[in-house]
Amino acid sequence: MPRQTRQERYNARPPRQNRGIIFFIIIVVLFGIVKIAHGTYKSLSDTVTNSYQKANIKHRRDVNTVIKHKKPLSILLLGTDTGELKRTDKGRTDTIMLVTINPKTEKTTLYSIPRDTMVAIPGYEKDFPSKINSVYTYTNISDTVNTISNYLNVPIDYYALVNMGGLEKLVNQVGGVTIKSPLTFTFSADTAHETGKHRYKFYQGSSTFKYAADGHHFKTYHKMNGAAALAFSRMRYMDPNGDYGRTQRQRMVISAILKKTASPQMLFNKQFMHSISANVRTNLTFKEMLSIAGAYYQAKNNVVTKSATEQTVMHNGVSYQVLSRSEKQKTTNQLRQSLNLKAAKTGPIVAGNAKKARIPFDIEMALKE
Question: Which Pfam families does the protein's record reference (predicted)?
């Protein structure tokens, strides 16, 4: 498939446009690498070490004890809208997934948190309302993990932060993916809308799609390369389910990648491994990956996807997703149950100090429902 260069994408990018959509599959890092690591310790250790980044996370429990006793663990997956298109700024975490892995039930849960979720960022309540995807922009990785953990009252044991270059490179490394689209839509990689160059046409219920580099002369394809998977995952404005629909497509790509990485041949591929390490930062050490390999590996065969039900609220012309107190409690209940933890009250309604945020009456009513 003809593929635009980074320079072409950068030149075509409208100023200040949010190109945010990229995520990385921590399940590949966790369940793929560790399964074969015993036989290739040195080379894999060097590769994984390149991804390691310590974070000052306020752990709610002893992570070493969790792994030692084979208890369910959690990983916060964050995808930033940078790393491609010559974008080197810090960016926002446009993809937020809390992954829980339960070795007892042999189940992995991918819980999506919409990027537009309204919050008051701790320490920056004066800027309320903010979106949860900007917590990282205002603070750092440690504060981001701590904020989300406190917001939902759920322990977060590890994190994985991935830049925008990760998805496209990873899909190319696995040889492309085949996915049936849940809806029919047209998307331009240049404009993030239906018109423009580098247009893709996806069709509901079909894995066949069309692509036109000039935006007009389409050719038919049956397998997505990295650029196509990125386009398939990025579209939001034409989806009747908005960001919920987009996170659904993200999870479909995750599942497709999982299937392709199941073979030892792929995981022994040094170029594939380098692609992982070059685009992800995590506080999972290689030793920790090895120690959890046997007990958690089977959980990758039963992947459940969930997302909170939020309502759209407009404030000063900006659209936000509001998680009411009752829905927020439901989310906390589900996550704690997946971690085999006792039920507990959910965290602060807007993450930060509500009094300092000076929440308007109409928003306060939406939050309290």
Answer: LytR_cpsA_psr
